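Figure 6 in text form: structure in, sequence out.
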C-alpha cells in the first residue's frame, strides 16, 4: 500500500504540549562573579610551571656533559662545552 498524499504521512518530529517548560530564575547575588571569572580565566601556564619539577638536563651526545637552557630561544638545550656561542 503506497502513501500518495502528505496528509497520510505521520509527522516525524511532533512537538506536543509535553515539552519541558522554560526555566527562569533569579541570579545568585551572594557571590561576586568577577572573582570566579578571574579564577576560570587563569594565569596562562604559570600555574603549570609552578607544579612541574625543573627538567633534568640531557647529556650532550658528543661530550656527555650536561646541557643548559640558554636564555635565547634559537635552541632549547645547548652544550656550553661544545657550543659556547649558545650561552648568551
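Output sequence:
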Amino acid at each position: 500500500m503506497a502513501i500518495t498524499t502528505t496528509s497520510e504521512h505521520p509527522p516525524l518530529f511532533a512537538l506536543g504540549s509535553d515539552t519541558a517548560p522554560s526555566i527562569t530564575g533569579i541570579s545568585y547575588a551572594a557571590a561576586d562573579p568577577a572573582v570566579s571569572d578571574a579564577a576560570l580565566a587563569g594565569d596562562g601556564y604559570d600555574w603549570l610551571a609552578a607544579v612541574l619539577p625543573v627538567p633534568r638536563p640531557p647529556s650532550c651526545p658528543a661530550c656527555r656533559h650536561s646541557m643548559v637552557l640558554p636564555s635565547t630561544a634559537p635552541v632549547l638545550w645547548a652544550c656550553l662545552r661544545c657550543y659556547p656561542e649558545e650561552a648568551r
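Caption detail: The first helix runs from residue 33 to 41.
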